[in-house]
Design a protein that fits this description.
The chain has a two-stranded antiparallel sheet. Strands 3-4 form a two-stranded antiparallel sheet. A hairpin with a 2-residue loop joins strand 1 and strand 2. It starts with a helix and ends in an 18-residue tail after the last helix. Helix 1 packs across helix 5, helix 3 packs antiparallel against helix 8 and helix 9 packs across helix 10. It is globular, with a radius of gyration of 20 Å. The protein is mostly helical. The longest helix is centred in the first third of the chain and has 32 residues. It has a single domain, classed as ABC transporter involved in vitamin B12 uptake, BtuC, CATH 1.10.3470. It has 11 helices and 4 strands, in the order H-H-H-H-E-E-E-E-H-H-H-H-H-H-H.
């Protein structure tokens, strides 16, 4: 391969790796919001997922056990959010922000002894097991496209997760029921759909996928634990849901955008650019915000924003 193709392949490889955690969290949030529940607690769930995944893997030697524990943590925090918003009918924005604040503090506390420690003036982090990249023979050697086949196992799982998520949402009765609850819980209830059960189920599923995304960060993308390892990815994932118009397939495009800008800024820093590193670190977030603003403006202009009609609205059967 020519030098340009090698560079493009490397950027695409990093792009996919950087976007993996975002896709997991965004797909989970899409399912949650499709049920009518807004979950602003993704950042806290991803942080607790990341710290518990790394801690579990470090002390047990099992990366898969770490992923499982991260998903359980996401499930527990999402269950709290579901109880507050579905059963207690608390304000969904306030509940989500509380989950993020709680998760951030809890992750900081749990990770206090796991982060980088000083060794003769140098910061040295704990080293544990990780998901290494697995290159698929022949396919990984294809120019540019070969980047798809130089990923870790958690990224490979996305190749199946996203198509299954789209199929389930649009081609199955359960998916139809989910969308019905998000559009009109009163109508769904009259049709015999258990609105409370549906909202609990998909809020918890969203939390589990957020925890999974956090596990990818600490066990594959940047193995180890550092304070605020997510770097705001939970908030970016929420923005991607709007960017994707609540469609799991479109979430991939947003994640690639974020991951691609992230990869480019890393390459620029490695190449010794004169642009200050702080400005380069801002690029992925600035581009995501810019694209989100443009997309929202365009969709509002064309009246096709696609948000579930009952999103953020509490429902009790007695109120029909």
């Amino acid at each position: 391969m020519t030098e340009a193709l090698v560079l493009l392949t490397q950027i695409l490889t990093i792009t996919l790796r950087a976007g993996t955690s975002l896709i997991y969290a965004a797909v989970g949030e899409i399912y949650t919001e499709r049920s009518g529940i807004l979950n602003l607690g993704l950042e806290g769930m991803m942080l607790t997922g990341a710290v518990t995944a790394f801690a579990t893997a470090f002390y047990t030697g099992s990366t898969w056990l770490g992923v499982l524990v991260a998903m359980v943590m996401g499930m527990i925090m999402a269950s709290i959010h579901a109880f507050l918003t579905v059963t207690m009918r608390a304000n969904q924005v306030v509940s989500g922000l509380s989950i993020t604040l709680f998760g951030t503090g809890l992750a900081s506390f749990l990770g206090e002894r796991l982060g980088p420690a000083s060794n003769n003036g140098n910061l040295v982090g704990m080293v544990g097991p990780r998901f290494s990249a697995i290159e698929i023979p022949v396919l990984s050697q294809i120019p540019v496209v070969g980047a798809l086949f130089k990923q870790d196992i958690l990224t490979y799982l996305l190749y199946a997760l996203v198509p299954l998520a789209v199929y389930y949402l649009y081609k199955t009765r359960n998916g139809l029921n989910l969308r019905a609850v998000g559009e009109s819980p009163q109508t769904a209830d009259a049709m015999g759909i258990n609105v409370t059960k549906t909202r609990y189920l998909y809020t918890i599923l969203g939390g589990m996928l957020a925890g999974f995304g956090g596990a990818h960060l600490s066990l594959a993308y940047a193995p180890g634990w550092t304070e605020n390892i997510t770097g705001g990815r939970g908030w970016i994932a929420i923005a991607l849901v709007i960017f994707a118009m609540w469609n799991p397939a479109r979430a991939i495009l947003g994640a690639i955008l974020f991951g691609g800008i992230n990869a480019v800024q890393f390459r620029l820093q490695a190449g010794g650019t004169t642009i200050p590193a702080a400005y380069l670190n801002m690029l992925p977030y600035l581009m995501t915000i810019l694209v989100l603003v443009i997309m929202t403006w365009w969709e509002n202009l064309s009246h096709r924003i696609g948000a579930p009609a009952a999103l953020g609205k509490a429902y009790m059967r007695e109120e029909k």
